Amino acid sequence: GRQLQVAIDVPGAIQPRSTLRAGLRIDGAAPGEEVWLTLAAVDLGILNLTGFRSPDPSAHYFGQRRLGVELRDLYGRLIDGMNGAMGNVRSGGDANAGLRMQSPPPTERLVAQFTGPIRVGADGQAFVNLDIPAFNGTVRLMAVAWSPRAVGQAARDVILRDPVVAQVSLPRFLAPGDTSRMRIEMIHAEGPAGEVRLSIEAPEAVRLSARAVQAVLAEQGRQVVDLALSSDIVGDHPLRVVMTTPGGQVLTRDYLLPVRANDPEIALTRRFSLGAGETFTLDAEVFADLRAGTGRALISAGPLARFDAPGLLSMLDRYPYGCTEQVTSQALPLLYLSSVAQASGLGAATDIDARIDRAIGQVIARQASNGAFGLWSAQADGDLWLDAYVTDFLSRARVNGHAVPDRAFGMALDNLRNRINFAADFDRGGEDIAYALMVLAREGAAAMGDLRYYADEKGAAFGTPLAAAQLGAALAAYGDQLRADAMFGLAQSGLDALAGDGVPVWRDDYGTRLRDAAGVLTLAVEAGSRAVDRDALTARVAGTDARRSTQEAAWSLLAAHALIGAPGASGLSVNGQAMQGPFVQVLDDAMTARSFAITPTAGATDLTLTTIGVPLVAPPAGGTGYAISRVHYTLDGQPLDLGALRVGDRFVTVLTVDPATELGARLMIDDPLPAGVEIDNPSLLRSGDVRALGWLNPSQARHAEFRSDRFLAAVDLRGRERVTLAYVARAVSPGAYHHPAASVEDMYRPDFRARTETGRVSIAE
Q1: What is the pLDDT at residue 567?
Q2: Residue 31 CB-density burial (10 A; 0-12 exposed, 13-18 middle, 19+ buried)
Q3: Confidence (pLDDT) at 84
Q4: Do 279 and 599 form a contact (C-beta atoms < 8 A)?
Q5: Alpha-carbon Rg of the chain, whole angstroms?
Q6: Which distant-in-sequence residues (6+ apart) come within 8 Å of 298 by Cβ?
Q7: Which end of the chain is less enclosed by CB atoms within 10 A, N or C?
């Protein structure tokens, strides 16, 4: 009796916006045996799109399995002939999370419901009520039943249909100023024929050519209504279509119209000195040059203002990409600056904790079987510095009370130990070794002999000031303050030697001189060392308003926390009310009626104002360090003007990046799509994929994402070679659309970036 027979019984005709009462009968259980089941109801279109098969536990547990025969000889790959180190055995498929439709949200509600475990009655029956949303189509009911000795399953397709089916087609998103259409297709399915009345409820921000429509439907007839659609206000605008059928039934459907300004944001930081009795007023004029719905201003005072902590936290929060280093950098400062993050509008304390926990889950999901962390997926990249950085974050998170799985954390520490044990000797470098030793020392897992060896024999050989400071922090954690101070002294000397060197270089540790200065300052303060000039380092870290990388921002915030601790009273009044605690005020362009009059009450103070948003006028093509071009072709290889597309046309977009120097870089290439266009095939074109474009020699991307509103690719550049990427797109919605500029950014030297011109796209029926 290992098989349960499961039957699903539903009413013959089901209409949306009702409760579906599904009856389930389970046979085959032994008398008195406890039986449980689950029931899922999912849109069949989603299942087809994702290739999901209905659960079949019977086949999984009891199905016949064919024995496979294969012969492999991999022993020669398991040992590195150069140093005798064990190799890594990697298994698994080549799938990844490249197809991540992250933004904008779906235009209508998706049907995917799950009941959770339900106990079956002694008579073998169970009844489940499912609330059916406003949905016309086929839903698959999937039931799984089990008892202590048997399993079973069943699936049944159910059609949900209104008497008059109204299918509404919207563009996936719009940009401000775009014009498109809202198509409403009405089909008579059953019941009386005759006049159908439609009304569309939408906010004032959405412009429609009509908000009330009448049509006459014949028996089994069809009518199509097209309404011109546009909006200038960024946001997610709700739309409600109310339809009165010929039989007098009132049906409603809710949709969402996302409006996105996908042009690159700009961030501007300004500093002011405010004397005693003087007043500074912050109001909506600060957004005069920014597009409505995108502007945000943060103003801070006191020690926080010196480091621009609110602005850096906001910058990290809005950083659009998501490799393991960036996820870690976004979450690491939140461990210590939760109150500042809350004041900066990033959410309540529970929201901040949830962000940190989510980041822990993300990085652990990218942990390989040997304990290492992949940059974009779960694989051993061989990047010891990244492994140490993530483990540092997990270690700090555990100390601050966040749940980090013991097994995952233990594997991460074991990976660092193993890498240290097999580390090669070096005459210059060792940045990853120093970081790994610091993390191990904090956890009491480093060997004191290793720390003293590297300090005494290799102290001057470390390639960066941060590496010297990290070894110093490791020694301080074990109580060897004398050697720790010596290493911090070497770190200070290294920073002094680099102070006047303005030449950027490729670095495997994602760093810059500014990042190193912030890191040395943080670790010296945490270790209680006075071997560094804290005032000079503070001035260097806090004295720049230039765009910062995620590494520079994260370590600058850690330095701010180490120096400031818990910021006290600000000594300011806002609109006549004394401020308590750290002073941070946030203004977005939706708060046009608000203003802040800021006055010092305890002497002069410094203010820092950071404004973030999309400019009204897009900057011209150009950049620093790179040049980028975007060209479109037909599938026949002919140059294509996107001003004359028709719905259904497929075309190839080719992105080319030319570096101006021999410097290596970790590049992020971002090509926002115009509304009305979708990526057709979620994969990069390779040479020969389109015969007419056989001349293409595409570059190898480290990672690619095909989102619903943009194409992203991460590329590691080791020289001055040209980067070429290509993908296929399709015109899907008629209208006239803004085409944002494509851009390339050196993720860890953010001043080096370039962009194309913006454009317009026209799509006809």
Answers
A1: 57
A2: exposed
A3: 45
A4: yes
A5: 30
A6: 310, 311, 314, 344, 345, 584, 585, 586, 587, 609, 610, 612
A7: C
Q: What angle do CA 96, 97, 101 make, to 5 degrees?
A: 150
d(CA 415, CA 395): 14
SS3 label, residue 334? helix
Q: Are 608 and 736 in contact (CB under 8 A)?
A: no
Residue with tokens 């809710």: 254
Closest to 227 measured CA to CA, from 198, 189, 255? 198
Tokens of 570: 């600000």
Among residues 419, 444, 452, the alpha carbon closest in space to that of 433 is found at: 419
Instruction: Pull the structure tokens for residue 637.
Output: 């290889």
* pLDDT score at 278: 85
* pTM of the complete model: 0.79
What are φ and ψ of residue 626, in 5° steps?
A: -145, 160
pLDDT at residue 392, rounded to an integer: 97
Chain-centroid distance, C-alpha 641: 32
Task: Tell me if residue 365 falls in helix, strand or coil.
Answer: helix
Residue 248, number of CB atoms within 10 A of its CB: 8
Which H or E element spans position 745?
strand 743-746
Q: What is the DSSP letter of 616?
A: S
The 3-state secondary structure of 671-740 reads: EECCCCEEECCCCCCCCCCCHHHCCCCCCCCCEEEECCCEEEEEEEECCCCCEEEEEEEEECCCEEEEEC
Q: By the 8 A CB rule, do 204 and 759 touch?
A: no
Strand 710-717 relative to strand 703-706: parallel, antiparallel, unpaired? antiparallel
Q: Whole-angstrom Cα distance, residue 172 to residue 258? A: 7
Gap between the Cα atoms of 134 and 165, Å rounded: 11
Sign of CA dihedral 446, 450, 455, 456: positive
Q: How high is the pLDDT of residue 94?
A: 37
pLDDT < 50: residue spans in the chain: 80-102, 501
Q: With contact defined as beta carbons under 8 Å apart, do 331 and 393 qualify? A: yes
Name which of 281, 346, 299, 339 is nearest 318 in CA terms.
346
Query: What secondary structure letter does DSSP report for 134?
Result: S
Q: Which residues contact 41 (CB under 8 A, 6 or more apart)?
A: 20, 111, 112, 113, 114, 130, 139, 140, 141, 142, 158
Strand partners for 208: 229
Residue 119 pairs with which residues in a beta bridge?
Answer: 36
| Per-residue pLDDT at 295 | 87
The dihedral over CA atoms of 639, 642, 644, 648, expressed in degrees to the nearest 10, equals 100
